[in-house]
Amino acid sequence: MKNTSEYVVQTLIDDEDMSADLASLYPAASKIGDAAAAFIDKADQTIEKKGLMGTPAGTVAKCIDICQNVVKEGAAISRLLRNPRTCNTVIISRRYEETNPATEDDSMTQSTVEDVE
Fold first, then answer.
1. Which residues contact 70 (CB under 8 A, 6 or more apart)?
2. Where is this region: Disordered (predicted)?
3. Environment class of residue 67 by beta-carbon count within 10 Å: exposed (0-12), middle (13-18) or buried (19+)?
């Protein structure tokens, strides 16, 4: 048997059957990321073609940043529909990390508090 990256991926990701109840949602979930990616492409072309500068360019850049997150969320939705048990845990932990970011100062403070105790 030839060892390829496909086999590695298969061993890393639990193989779950997609629920028939969720299967109809998968195409719609794919369109979320597709629409955001299409917007990013169009917005980038608009900045270049029209030579946007200043506030208009900043506004479009912020829209692109939002769409970058939408692409990631769309991918997360698709993964969740395909592998609900595995992905649900990963998504919850990522969201927790995003809403409660630990900084170097936090870890330094924690270690200092532990040293004092």
1. 32, 33, 35, 36
2. 96-117
3. buried
Nearest CA to 104 out of 112, 96, 116, 95 is that of 112
For residue 95 the two structure tokens come to: 């969201």
Fill in the amino acid letter for 77: I
Centre a 10 Å sphere on the Cβ of residue 29 and count the other Cβ atoms it contains. 20
Cα–Cα dist 25/15, whole Å:
19
List pLDDT tens digits, range 32-71: 999 999 999 999 999 999 999 999 999 999 999 999 999 9
The CA radius of gyration of the chain, in Å to the nearest whole number, is 21
pLDDT tier at 30, thresholds 50, 70, 90: very high
